[in-house]
Amino acid sequence: MTTQELINQIKVKKSFLCIGLDVDLNKIPPHLLSEEDPIFAFNKAIIDATHHLAVAYKPNTAFYEAYGVKGWESLEKTIAYLNANHPEMYTIADAKRGDIGNTSKMYAQAFFEDLGFDSVTVAPYMGKDSVEPFLSFKNKHTILLALTSNAGAFDFQTQEINGKELYKQVLETSKTYENSENLMYVVGATKAEFLAEVRQIVPSSFLLVPGVGAQGGDLKSVCKYGMSPNVGLLINSSRGIIYASNNTDFAQAAAIKAKELQQQMEEILNHAG
Amino acid sequence: MTTQELINQIKVKKSFLCIGLDVDLNKIPPHLLSEEDPIFAFNKAIIDATHHLAVAYKPNTAFYEAYGVKGWESLEKTIAYLNANHPEMYTIADAKRGDIGNTSKMYAQAFFEDLGFDSVTVAPYMGKDSVEPFLSFKNKHTILLALTSNAGAFDFQTQEINGKELYKQVLETSKTYENSENLMYVVGATKAEFLAEVRQIVPSSFLLVPGVGAQGGDLKSVCKYGMSPNVGLLINSSRGIIYASNNTDFAQAAAIKAKELQQQMEEILNHAG
Fold first, then answer.
1. Does the annotation count A257 as an active-site position?
2. Could you name the active-site residues (chains A, B) (predicted)?
3. Which end of chain B is more exposed for a tag (fewer CB within 10 A), N or C?
4. Which residues of B touch A66 (CB under 8 A)?
C-alpha cells in the first residue's frame, strides 16, 4: 500500500486507529478454545467487528511464534483473511527484526512477499545494511524502532550519543538510507513531549505510536505534539480493545472500545482540519 | 545447558566451533529438493557429519521463516533431532528478538521451552525490561548483540554515548540486569582488536563470534584478543562449512571444512593450555 492510500483511508474513516492483534490463548474467551484454530477465530471476529473503525491491524509475531507451527498457521490465515476480505486495511507485522544484509533480505521477503504484509517493524541497532534490504521493497514500509514505550527505552535510546540522544541519531541517520521515503517510526506515547522533538527531525513521516491506553499515554497530547499536516500518526491499541470482554460478546465489546477511540480521533481531525 | 557443561564439551572435543545452519533452498545440493523436507534432510546430514567436530549449532530463524509454516516445521524438526540424538550439543536460536517485557516473555518461552534451545540471540535497543524476561530462565543463555560484524555496526554501535562507545555501554549496562550471569554476547570478528576492549568489560563471559571465514575475520587474532581462561569463545562459521560442496558429497565436504577449523582450534587450545 502506498502512503497516499493510507492517508486517503484515514480521511474516509476519520480514524488513525491501529488494532494490535496480540492474541494470548489464556486471555481469549474460553468458548473459542474448542474452535479448530482459536487464534484465527478470535482475530476474524475482531476484524469483522472493527474494520470500519480502524485503518490498520498489527499482529505481534511473538504471540504467534509462542504456539509454534500452529501459531504460524494462525498468522498466515489472519493476514490472508485481511488481504482477501479487507484489502483497504493497512497491515503491520510487529516483528522487530534486523540482521546482516543477506539475512534481513530473507525476513523482508517472508513478511512482504510470502505473507503479504504492508509493513514490518525493524530494530535499528545493526544499522544501514540491516535496514536497507527492507526499504528496497516498493510500496512497502519499514517501521524503525526509534523511541519505544517501555521503561528500558531509557537504558540506551535516550542516552546522548555525540551530544544527541540515540533515538534522534537513529532518526537522522536513517534519513540517509537508500529509499528512506519508505520509513515510518515507532515512537512511544509515554512522554508525549518527545513527539515534538521527533517532529523536528521527521516532520512528515508516519509514526506508529504504541502505549496509548494500557501503557498510559494520552491521545490528545500525542496528537498535539505528533500530528503532521497529513495526520502522520497510527495510534495502536491492543489489550484495551481486543480484551474488552472475555465473554461471547467479545467482538461487540471490542467494537465499542474501538468506536470510542475512533470518535475521539474524528473530533481531533475535525478540529485540526 | 549450564556454562560449565559447555566448557567441558569444549575441552573434550578440543573445539569451540559453532556451525550456522542458515539453509537456503537455492544453495543446497539439488538432489535434496525431492526430499519431503529438504531443509531438515540437509541439516540432519550436516549434523551427522560434523557433530564430533563442533560444540554448537546455530540456526538463524530468518532462513526458516522465509519458508513460512514449512520452514517453521523444519526448524522444529532440526532442534528436536539435535536434542534427541546429540543432547551434548549447545544450541543457539539466532533470532535477534527483543520487545516489551510481556512480549519478550512470549519469545523466551517459544525458544527456550517449546523449541528447547539452550540460548537465543537478543537485540539490546529496548533495554532492561526487554532482556530480563529471557535472563530469568535457568540454565539458558541470552546472547546479547554487542558489536556485530556488518558494516552497519558503525552507524550506532561504535558511536560514543556519554563518552563511551554504545557497544561498551551495552556491555556495562547489561551487567546490572537481573540474572546477568546468563548473558553471553555477540562480538563480530571483523576487527579483532575490539575483542581486547570487550574483554576489559566482560572478562569471562562467553562471546559468540560471527564473521570468521566468509566475513573476513581471522581465527588466530580473534583468540589472541578474545580468549578467556575458560576459552569463552564460540566461533561461528556458516556458509564456509555448510556450502563447501553443492553435490552429493556435501556432508563430507562440510566435515572436512569443520575439521580444518577444529584442528586450528585444537592447536590454539594446546598452545594456550
1. no
2. 96 (proton donor)
3. C
4. 106-107, 109-110, 114
Q: Following DSSP, what letter does each residue of A5-50 receive, concatenated?
A: HHHHHHHHHT--EEEE----TTTS-GGGGGSSSHHHHHHHHHHHHH
Residues of A in contact with B128 (CB under 8 A): 151-152, 155
Delineate the domains of chain A, giving CATH numbers in brackets.
3-272 (3.20.20.70)
Q: What are the C-alpha distances in Å from B192 to residues B124, B219, B220, B225?
A: 22, 9, 9, 7
ipTM of the assembly? Answer: 0.95
Q: Tell me the three state secondary structure of residue B183.
A: strand
Q: What is the pLDDT of residues A10-31, one digit of tens each?
A: 999 999 999 999 999 999 999 9
How does DSSP classify residue B164? Answer: E
**What's the start-to-end Cα distance of chain B, in Å?**
24
- Count the helix, strand and coil residues of chain B and give each as a percent rounded to the nearest 5: 50, 20, 35
Is residue B58 within 8 angstroms of chain A, CB to CB? no
Residue A271's alpha-carbon distances to A13, A43, A218, A262, A267, in angstroms, are 15, 33, 17, 14, 6
Q: pLDDT of B147-159, one tens digit each?
A: 998 999 999 999 9
Is A109 within 8 Å of chain B by CB?
A: yes
- Whole-number pLDDT of residue B130: 98
Q: What is the pLDDT of residue A214?
A: 52
Mean pLDDT across the stretch A255-271?
Answer: 95
Indicate whether A273 pLDDT > 80. Answer: no
Q: pLDDT tens digit string along A108-121?
A: 999 999 999 999 99
> Could you tell me the three cell numbers for B82?
539435535
- Residue among B58, B100, B160 with most chain A CBs within 10 A, to mutate: B100
